[in-house]
């Protein structure tokens, strides 16, 4: 049964025009290499449904005034590499129109495509990565394009990465981080040192992409995800971190991935939708700091 097309926050905006919208929401209902709990393929639909309950006013401004357009969900049939190719070309077309791509996953593997598109478009790209997991494995369960490998593949492609909230990873991943000088702030370090601001290396790219695996947050905030891990980032702490991103950095796009909707509880779906809208708010309030 084909799902009725839903637009992000359509309840407030109606359907906005594509070429006049700053934000281009791209649903990617992809679930191919999920290893534990399933359901992340239904994540984008659940976020779009929950977005109808958001308030247009986020407590500071009205981010939707900059325009939010929701694309048709990306065709996730066939091989993972084919899905990624489709997503990369759509992201490139959004970027060349001056839009900000907002990717709704889906498993974390989908992050590969928009970041590659950003790298092609901007030359350099830095990823601020929120996750319980490092996603730096060379391969996982026989796949190099597993959700557990996505940051490794991107680092190999020259993307620069800083990780926040990590707390579950292998010794090989840790060795890779150290070998490659990937900066990370594990949840335990953040907690012990009371880290509430984002610190980026001096030479970190000015163009940045934010990748939010919802399991980076604490399961008390977002319980419905494939691989929940205790001890994550709390709600207000998360937005304090995002607000602290240095103002000379340009947030070029972001994703929210790995939501696995429960069906009988809306708590995680709504939290994920609110994260999407709050990040839009943070981006729009920083637009004065740079010309697009
Ligand atoms: Mn994760």
Characterize the structure shown.
This protein is an alpha/beta fold and 292 residues long. It has a single domain, classed as Ureohydrolase domain (Arginase, Chain A). It has nine helices and eight strands. It has an eight-stranded parallel β-sheet with strand order 2-1-3-8-7-4-5-6, with helices on both faces. The radius of gyration is 17 Å and the shape is globular. The site of manganese (II) ion has 7 residues, from loops. Manganese (II) ion (MN) binds next to loops.
Short recap of the structure:
With 292 residues, the protein is an alpha/beta fold. It contains nine helices and eight strands. Manganese (II) ion (MN) binds at residues 131-133, 213, 215, 227, 258.
Low-confidence spans: pLDDT under 50, at least 5 residues? none
Q: How many runs of DSSP E, i.e. beta strands?
A: 8
Q: Which oligomeric state applies?
A: single chain
According to CATH, the fold-level topology is Arginase, Chain A
Shape: globular
Roughly what percent helix? 25-40%
User: Largest beta sheet, briefly?
Assistant: 8 strands, parallel
Order of strands side by side in the largest beta sheet?
Answer: 2-1-3-8-7-4-5-6
Per DSSP, what share of the residues sits in E-state strands of 2 or more residues? 5-15%
Q: At the first level of CATH, what is the class?
A: Alpha Beta
Q: How many structural domains in the coordinates?
A: 1
Order of helices and strands: HEHEHEHEHEHEHEHEH
**CATH architecture label name:** 3-Layer(aba) Sandwich
